[in-house]
Design brief:
The structure holds 3 protein chains of 3 kinds.
Chain A: E1 4-17, E2 20-33, E3 37-41, H1 48-55, E4 63-68, E5 71-72, H2 81-84, E6 87-90, H3 104-114, H4 120-134, H5 150-162, E7 168-172, H6 180-197, E8 200-205, H7 208-214, E9 217-222, E10 225-231, H8 232-237, H9 242-250, E11 301-304, E12 307-309
Parallel strand pairs in A: 3-8, 3-9, 6-7, 7-8
Antiparallel strand pairs in A: 1-2, 1-4, 4-5, 9-10, 10-12, 11-12
Chain B: H1 2-9, H2 14-24, H3 27-49, H4 52-56, H5 83-119, H6 121-136, H7 139-150, H8 154-181, H9 184-191, H10 196-232, H11 244-251, H12 259-287, H13 294-306
Chain C: E1 4-16, E2 21-33, E3 37-41, H1 48-56, E4 64-73, E5 76-77, H2 83-92, E6 94-97, H3 101-104, H4 111-121, H5 128-137, H6 154-166, E7 172-176, H7 184-201, E8 204-209, H8 212-218, E9 221-226, E10 229-235, H9 236-240, H10 248-256, H11 295-299, E11 305-306, E12 312-313, H12 320-326
The chains are: A alpha/beta, B mainly alpha, C alpha/beta.
């Protein structure tokens, strides 16, 4: 049994808005073993990005605990810099997440500078080493991001996250802004790095095929809640929650033979995360919904080894 | 292929160079810059060419209202002072006043706008409401009130202009910073532990610099006009120091017999303010990569079509 | 032959910038029959959108220019017709759906008015009935035509945009990444709807996308674009059949997609990156990234090779010239 790198306990993030309270992250319990990858999948507005930012304390959580290496990072409040060095994030958009006025060297060195890690020479050495790791040619150190293509920019993003030698990295849709051929290069890079350094990833994405490729376990989110949590193979082979099943069947597969297959499309659209009704949040779109789905006591139930769902009508 | 691509890419000198190149290719911008350059040169050389005590403010009633001649290029005014020397000194005074006010106002607006944008919420509201009060007073009236209340020392004129420019500059800085704060790189900087000062100085200001520069250039024109305006009303720079607006009002009496006395300062005011305004416009176009070089491209295509 | 709706002959487009010309489309030839749907697949900068804009004559004036080739639509060369005629064709005969439904609708008019406007522009004096009909077709309750765009969700907006494009029953629909901005479950709904309507109305469609999965589910024919050229063209089954010979770029594209139905741990990406269209490599544009690159590839671009059943490949692997050089 590997030790748990990161754990969230009843993590909650509500946003107070004029229209009511947005339940962006609602009582999320997850744990990620060291050196593994947890994929977090969901459609836009399901709170997956908010979850990632809460875990890094970029957005203060409303309540709950975040245990990093067994210690609750929220308790330590002001001293957040200690763990921030060990927890990093890779952003989605390599175009807007890099300051256009900074050179590649400065961008990668920024984490070292802000944390006053070592002398100038040491910084230079570290930056050069990490540029080599992520596959950026040394001559690019003086280039500006706008001179580079998306793939290289995202390599800078990866380098920025890795230069602090973190233990845990939140990857917020790191490849969805990239072309497929570049996407594959970055995914390979991220997996190589994980193997070499034993980094733990939380991989947030809306792309099921990417998440299947990179993750060990997968959490499916819907309107702020985790609705299904299972090891990768189990989830793809036997989805138990109706939403997971619908998601899987909605993914276009590049295989013309599948075209004739009848697919199960769910109707309607994601409802509002503002003051959601009690009970199952997927019920309005669910083909199996019954009145008992609206009982407020709905929680995660174990349906198999490491396989949990939030549903009263689990599929077979 | 690699080497070929490299040579082309390495010509890239960053955004500042692109803007400069775009300005250079814009005729209006070049003319404006040349004019502004001449004005700056004039104000630097005024001291070398003429002695302030004996040639600019010393009265010589015997030689009053002479027409332009070899000795007096622009003639003399009603008190017999060389009009050309006075014009040069007036340029210098106007530019010094404008430059100081724009510089101070910009520096202050970066601080105030920065605080307002970064902290937001109640701080922002208070700052913005105070500025709204200033905006509610007609600008000329505001300047006149300050100068009349404090006296027409150069320092107070500069102060009045700073107060006049500040609200609009702060708004520009604030909105520009707020737009840039939306960018993910700010969050990226926070995620690696950067504090507010670092984010402001290293990330936000350099990215907002362009828009602030445009506003600054245009503020110059406003300063020149306002200085001339209060000078004309007789509450500007203290006599006997020469100043465009005051020279304009003094020359009014002799308009029929010596029209050049009124035309020359009028012309200077117009040219100076237009040059700064046009430069500001051109700068704005140059900042926008979509407009950059658009005119030239159009020409290229038309030329080809004609063939 | 009479079935032919659109024919592109060696179309070449470039954009002018201050210092150099960007060669966006470099000799594209295509044919599209009535009722067919063609998937145009390629990565960013492959020239897909440029090609669609050239068909509609909507390239930015003074910047983009079709400098060679013919675009023949129902026997008429669209590059030669006057602007007035072009305005009639747009919307009436050819219409386009853009990627972002949020910016394609005017926020200050009701959606009903916006659809009616399209109809009125093309001579329908009393569009009300037709508006209801077309809204029903895209799966929106006609009573919602009095709502403003912001009252709809992203998927609904895209349906409205599609309704506008289909209002005049055009012969050809150009759909530029119509579902990229949408969530998967909504994407599936919209794709199913497009498929359905296309069959009902018999509209031809060019679907521009980077997603091979989407193509597999909606198109009859597929064209793979790379650096402004079509490198492979054939029916859906020809291009997706892994047992057939393919262009190395196509192989790379398929290798880059993490496949839901397989368990491979490492992907096989194409190394390097798409060439700068202002500075294309000599010879075959794909040669710097290609595993099968030979001296011949570096010197000159390949001729088109068409197999007996119409599967087109533009690669030296299949040309006579290369075989001779090898010998």
């Amino acid at each position: 049994m590997k030790k748990t790198m990161l754990e969230t306990v009843d993590l909650v993030k509500y946003f107070d808005t004029k229209n009511g309270i947005v339940h962006a992250v609602d009582h999320v319990n997850l744990s990620i073993p060291e050196g593994e990858t947890l994929g977090v999948v969901g459609e836009s507005g399901c709170g997956k990005s908010t979850l990632g930012r809460c875990i890094l304390n970029l957005i203060p959580a409303t309540s709950g605990q975040i245990l990093f290496d067994g210690k609750n990072i929220l308790e330590r409040g002001g001293k957040s810099k200690d763990f921030r060095q060990k927890m990093q994030i890779i952003f989605q958009d390599p175009y807007s997440s890099l300051d256009p006025r900074q050179t590649v060297f400065n961008l990668i060195a920024e984490p070292l500078k802000t944390n006053r890690m070592g002398t100038k020479a040491e910084m230079r050495e570290k930056v050069e080493a990490i540029m080599d790791t992520v596959g950026l040619a040394p001559r690019l150190a003086t280039a500006y991001p706008h001179e580079l293509d998306g793939g290289r920019r995202q390599r800078i993003g990866v380098a920025r996250a890795l230069v602090m030698d973190p233990k845990f990295v939140v990857c917020d849709e790191p490849v969805s802004a990239l072309d497929v051929s570049i996407q594959a290069q970055i995914l390979n890079l991220m997996m190589d790095v994980q193997e070499e350094r034993g980094i733990t990833y939380m991989f947030i994405t809306h792309d099921l095929s990417v998440v299947k490729h990179i993750s060990h376990a997968i959490a499916v989110m819907y309107l702020g809640e985790v609705v299904e949590l299972a090891p990768k193979e189990e989830l793809f082979a036997h989805p138990r929650h109706p939403y997971t099943k619908a998601l899987l069947s909605a993914v276009p597969i590049p295989d013309p033979a599948r075209r004739t297959m009848e697919r199960q499309l769910i109707k309607g659209e994601v409802t509002s995360p503002v003051d959601p009704a009690p009970g199952c949040r997927f019920a309005p779109r669910c083909p199996y919904a019954t009145p008992e789905c609206l009982s407020p006591s709905l929680g995660m139930t174990e349906v198999g080894p490491n396989h949990q769902i939030r549903c009263c009508h689990p599929l077979d | 292929m690699q080497t070929k691509a490299k040579t082309k890419k390495q010509k890239n000198h960053g955004a500042a160079y692109d803007i400069w190149r775009s300005l250079r290719s814009n005729k209006v911008a070049v003319v404006s810059m040349v004019i502004i350059g001449i004005f700056v040169l004039i104000s630097i050389l005024a001291d070398v060419l003429f002695d302030y005590e004996t040639q600019v403010i010393a009265q010589d009633i015997m030689n009053d209202l002479q027409s332009p001649s070899k000795e007096h290029w622009f003639g003399t005014d009603s008190l017999g002072r060389d009009y050309f020397a006075r014009m040069l000194y007036a340029t210098r005074i106007t530019l010094i006043i404008s430059f100081s006010s724009v510089f101070i106002a910009t520096a202050l607006s970066i601080v105030i706008g920065g605080i307002s944008a970064y902290f937001g919420g109640i701080v922002d509201t208070i700052i913005m409401r105070i500025l709204d009060v200033f905006l509610a007073v007609p600008s000329t009236l505001l300047i006149i009130c300050i100068v009349v209340a404090l006296g027409n020392e150069t320092v107070y004129i500069i102060l009045a202009l700073v107060v006049y420019l500040l609200p609009s500059l702060v708004r520009t800085v604030r909105s520009e910073l707020m737009i840039n704060m939306e960018n993910e790189y700010v969050e990226a900087a926070r995620s690696v532990g950067a504090g507010p000062f670092r984010i402001m100085l290293i990330h936000l200001l350099p990215n907002s610099f362009g828009a602030i520069m445009v506003r600054c250039t245009m503020s110059f024109a406003l300063c020149i006009l306002s200085t001339a305006c209060i000078g004309y009303l007789g509450i500007g720079v203290r006599a006997p120091a020469p100043e465009w607006g005051r020279m304009l009002s003094e020359a009014q009496e002799y308009m029929r017999l010596h029209p050049y006395l009124i035309t020359i300062p009028g012309f200077f005011i117009m040219i100076a303010s237009t040059a700064f305004n046009l430069l500001g416009d051109a700068l704005q176009d140059a900042m926008d990569p979509r407009l950059r070089g658009y005119r030239k491209m159009k020409k290229k295509v038309f030329a080809r079509r004609k063939k | 032959m009479e079935n032919k709706l659109l024919e592109l002959k060696d179309v070449r487009v470039k954009y002018h910038t201050l210092d150099y010309d960007v060669m966006a489309v470099n000799g594209v030839s295509l044919e599209l029959n009535k009722g067919e749907s063609l998937g145009l697949v390629g990565e960013t900068g492959a020239g897909k959108t440029t090609l669609a804009l050239s068909i509609l004559g909507l390239l930015p004036k003074g910047v983009g220019e079709v400098y060679e080739g013919e675009i023949i639509f129902k026997g008429e060369d669209l590059l030669q017709v006057p602007e007035k005629r072009m305005r009639d064709i747009r919307g009436m005969h050819i219409s386009m759906i853009f990627q972002d439904p949020m910016t394609s609708l005017n926020p200050v008019y009701t959606v009903g008015d916006q659809i009616a406007e399209v109809l009125q522009l093309h001579g329908n004096k009393h569009p009300d009935e037709r508006v209801d009909e077309i809204l029903g077709l895209v799966g929106i309750d006609p009573s919602r035509k009095v709502c403003y765009p912001h009252q709809f969700s992203g998927g609904m907006k895209q349906r409205i945009v599609i309704a506008m494009a289909l209002a005049c029953e055009p012969d050809l629909l150009l759909a530029d990444e119509p579902t990229t901005a949408l969530d998967v479950t909504i994407q599936a709904q919209v794709l199913a709807m497009i498929d359905d309507i296309q069959k009902k109305l018999g509209t031809s469609m060019i679907l521009i996308t980077h997603d091979l999965g989407v193509v597999a589910e909606t198109c009859d024919k597929v064209a793979i674009m790379y650096a402004g050229e079509i490198v492979e063209y054939g029916t859906l089954h020809q291009v997706f059949d892994k047992t057939r010979p393919h262009h190395p770029y196509t192989v790379g594209l398929f290798g880059s997609i993490p496949d839901l139905s397989s368990d491979k741990r490492r992907l096989e990406p194409i190394y390097g990156m798409t060439p700068d269209p202002s500075d294309l490599p000599e010879g075959c544009y794909f040669s710097p990234r290609c595993n099968h690159c030979t001296e011949l590839c570096k010197q000159k671009g390949a001729a088109i090779h068409v197999s007996e059943d119409g599967h087109m490949l533009k690669c030296h692997l299949f040309t006579q010239e290369n075989k001779e050089a090898a010998e």
